[in-house]
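Troubleshooting entry. The earlier prediction with pyridoxal-5'-phosphate gave an output that would not parse, so I re-checked the input for stray whitespace and re-submitted. Clean input:
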Amino acid sequence: MPQISERGLEMPESPIRKLAPLAADAKKRGIKVYHLNIGQPDLPTPQVAIDAIKHVDRKILEYSPSQGYRSYREKLVGYYRKYGISVTADDIIVTCGGSEAVLFAFMSCLNPGDEIIVPEPAYANYMAFAISAGAKIRTITTTIEEGFCLPKVEKFEELINPKTRAILICNPNNPTGYLYTRREMNQIRDMVKKHDLYLFSDEVYREYIYTGSPYISACHLEGIEQNVVLIDSVSKRYSECGIRIGALITKNKEVRKAVMKFCQARLSPPLIGQIAAEASLDAPEEYSRDVYDEYVERRKCLIDGLNRIPGVYSPIPMGAFYTVAKLPVDDSEKFCRWCLEEFSYENETVMMAPASGFYTTPGAGRNQVRIAYVLNKEDLRKALILLRKALEQYPGRAEDD
Ligand SMILES: Cc1ncc(COP(=O)(O)O)c(C=O)c1O
């Protein structure tokens, strides 16, 4: 039999999806599973987007321009302006989700063997895209004890070598919910400048910042405009994961030129998706406000609930809709499997993502899980009861510290 490629073998399994077969089996046994494991928002998509799709009146569902429709990109300019991000339609390339924007950024800016520094825990697919591009992720560990704040410059300097080409941040962060402060963003800017690195900044959760702290986009940082590549997506802000629309934004013409070649090879971003995404920009202000308010309440419900369970600790996430929580267990992957395979309470159980999949450092995150608060409050409360019961019964409970 022909062999699988080294890259194919090296590709990590998604830590979010790898327990899915166990959840499917639990459901077959009649057990209701509360999904705290996945970042698929459950809130409705703006009605204007649904209507736009319903009323698509075209004779041909054709390819769209490789960089995306101009009308959409022009309208996006106004959206970014609201966040103090000053770009033109030409700076924006529409991609198949934020995922493709990450991949094309890597493909266009990195040579095989080049290194990207990423604070961990990190969105797991970054590792997968780095492998696809032949690049190497070097992680710098942030800790739950310090609330996942950015490590000091010296920690970065230890990793920087002639192969280092980029720093990648996710702000607000998936999986930790951390929001970088102005001081931290300035620290990143100075490192990027000093070592002439790319700064890939994934800001797909900018809508969800809960602390009143300012949102500092990489695009706000002066003096590194040519180094910044912004990754964006409509998946999370409009509950539109399925339309596969994202964007890669950069002022760097050479980067755009390279990215465009990858865009041309894949021909076109989704046509129907762009129609929905463009319409979404006309969603009434209450839409975003309602969604935001709902997440504020869920966050409170979840974090208060988690911290009331003996032995559990979660920092208060400042943004996005995730948290990384520490559990009093020997191994969170074993615990998450056990919840699906062996545990149930009143015929229900809970599914979480073991946090080890968000770290590359061996052993890191072993007693942590990532929890997404994309369930309504009532379900979140039920899921918290299940978690408490599961921890009481789990045979591999660790001593509380
Ligand atoms: C941090 C981050 N970046 C990018 C993505 C990719 O999203 P999409 O490809 O749906 O736009 C996700 C999805 O969960 C994410 O959490």
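This one parsed fine. Residues 285-308 form the longest helix (24 residues).
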